[in-house]
Amino acid sequence: MKHLFFNFTYRFLLSSFYACTGLILLLSFSLSALGQDSNPQNPPQAKKKTSKKDKRKNNPNNSIDNAIIEEKDKQIEELTKKLEDQGIPVQANTKGIVLSGYVDASYTYNFINAPAFNKVPGFVPPPGYVGPTNTAGFAQGYPAIPGREPVDAIPGGGFNMNAFKLALEKPLTDENRWQAGFRADLIVGQDAVVGAPDAITGLGVPFSSWYSFNTSSFWLEQAYVIFRAPVGNGLDIKIGKFVDPAGYEVVERPVNLDFTYGLLFANLLPTTLTGMQAIYRWDDQWTSRFGIADGGFNVSRGGMEYFGYLNNMINNNDAYLLFLNSQWDAKGKNATLSATLMYGFNGVNPPGFGASPIDGVAQPYGIAQGIRGEGPFNQNNAFFLGDVWGSWAPKFAHDRLLLGFEFTGGFYNNNVTVVPAAVSGLPLDLSSGPSNWYGASVHMKYQITDIISIAQRMDWMESGWNSILAGHNAPTDIWAYTATMAFDLADNFMIRLEYRMDWGKGVLGYYGYPFQNPTGSPTALLGTSNGPVYFVGLEFVYSF
Fold this sequence. Notes:
This protein is mainly β and 544 residues long. 14% of the residues lie in helices and 39% in strands. The strands form five sheets. The protein has a 16-stranded antiparallel barrel. Strands 4-23-24 form a three-stranded antiparallel β-sheet, with no helix packed on it. Strand 13 and strand 14 form a beta hairpin. The longest helix has 33 residues, at 2-34. The two termini are 51 Å apart. The model is unreliable at 1-10, 12-57, 206-211, 302-309, 351-377 and 514-523 (pLDDT under 50).
């Protein structure tokens, strides 16, 4: 009882202190408000204002007013300290910070045999294969779609928490003066795999969500400081981690015309770079970007986590990537044309976003499905990538029609390398040499009503050898068609229904399972299919 009495007394006195302090502050603000003009829309004449001001100057009560203000400030400081001592944070009044983001969830179904069903085809085991076999002695091949981003390629059907996106930004103003800001973007969910290997994955379970399929994966998409130097029209400098300037599609699914990522975004373009870029706006239509980044895509240093390198070198030579982007916007803001060039004079790491099998290991749901992995073919030779995209909303369509296109291509001039079948576990020797790749896509969106819209996408990609597309046999020639219907049912709320079909050489691969059997021997790419592979999905998005 004695303990309860003291505890009650303490809380009563503390609450009384807060209440009295709040009352004093309320009275202080009320007294201050009484001294102001009650009708600011009809101010008195200037002469009367001057007269009142002179009276206040000569008023002996000014010292009393100043004392009240000082006492009020002191009380506010004491109250703030008391609140913070009790673990109640007091938010700073920082102006100009913008918070935005979205929540994206979906149900998807890929019409291929899901491994959980154990209904997968059998293949003649390659030499040395010691993985699982069926009752007939054939090696079990589990399907994967290496040309898709992992979340878009899960066999069978199920619900997904694609992303919780949170962006915090202090943007620059339009003033041409010294100023600074920042931006940080965090993605939590299954789409964090887009940033692999620079992502934190949840524990998941072996052989499946262990490879970033789970909803608790984290990815810091961007984090950079930006400042403006008053040079010419204003020179903006970004330093840190930022998305690359190339590509029609972006990481944020709700911004794209379609729900799933296209072939070019998923395979032929980097996602983020770490370095510095300068942005200069020549006028209202032309903008240029020039930068230098470490020679690693989706990571910081070019050698980080690859073959044990902890520096920005490939084969003991510096690996930096130079990039240049120019963008034109129509005066009516209804058309955009953007072109990007990237050049790595000593190569990049990975060379075109990864090669698989990696040291002979073909991994189904990991490297083979788009996680950028290091291949054995990294050498100090030139890497080049070019990308052009554009969009146009014709005036005659009254903002109901949007058309877009993209072309991309590049080469990696590495030497010919051969991985013997005995090492790779494949039926044939695996060769790699100077690689080139190309891709193209066309996009269309039509706003049928204020609520309903339909979008279509057709994309194609091909590559020679195997230093660009992870998990594929070379050469490749893959096509995809996507149709999406969107429903904007409420403010910031959207539902999309999507159908997709992929086909072409090597569009579907069958891999040994698990990734490495208990003996440690590598599993193999057992077979491929030209498809077609069908997909349907239903997406729910709320943006804020």
